[in-house]
Amino acid sequence: MRAETVQKNDNQPPKTFSAADIGLILKAAHFAANKHKSQKRKGGEASPYINHPLEVAELIWNTGEYYDPEVVCAAILHDTVEDTETTFTEIEELFGLRIASLVKEVTDDKSLPKAERKALQIEHAPHLSEGASLIKLGDKASNVKDIVNDPPPDWSEERKHDYVEWTKLVVNELAAVSPPLKEHYERNYQSAKATLAKQAKKIRD
Fold first, then answer.
1. What are 90-106's pLDDT values in tens digits?
2. Calpha distance 192→169 (Å, rounded)
């Protein structure tokens, strides 16, 4: 039996996905949920960490209208190596070389200082593959939203502002892979800027 998904973009032909494609996505979601099961987001609500990679994957598929099951799987898995004990070898054995390569493209080297890691994200952004660029764009759109809706309680207004502006530097260097997803990021970015400006003004007053 095959499950059919119709492309939203009228310029793209409908594409049919196999049960194996859907099974791979579910396998990635199950794997990531287990790996992140004890982790929480940094926001005040301390929501389950798995909410974030699932949101990134959903943004790529529904907002970005980019229907590649392997990219969606990599989005779901994108923080497993960086933030858990997962290895690239483990991902390759379970999900294949392409998915492992996509995860590797968007994984920071945690042995480096944070400032260097952030600078390298800007430097590497223009050289990411299409799939990795989509994951990076979805990741930044999700994180910018959370900075306003559920910020880390211990972050100062300056730190939140600096983070939002840093995401813009990264996104500006990404290849133009999905106008709808880029527009979604831009809306989140502008909303975050406006909200943070109001908060800063309130503090000054």
1. 999 999 999 999 999 99
2. 15
DSSP reduced 3-state for 9: coil
Per annotation, catalytic residue among 58, 70, 79, 82: 82
Count of residues making up the chain: 205
Q: What tokens does 12 get?
A: 């793209």
83 is catalytic: yes
CB under 8 Å to 102, separation ≥6 — which residues?
70, 71, 74, 78, 129, 131, 132, 135
> pLDDT of 3-22, one tens digit each?
333 334 444 545 678 899 99
Domains of the chain, CATH where assigned: 2-204 (1.10.3210.10)
Question: d(Cα 98, Cα 182) in Å, to the nearest integer?
Answer: 24
17 pairs with which residues across the strands? 3
Catalytic annotation, pick one of 65, 83, 108, 130: 83
Q: For residue 199, is pLDDT > 90?
A: no
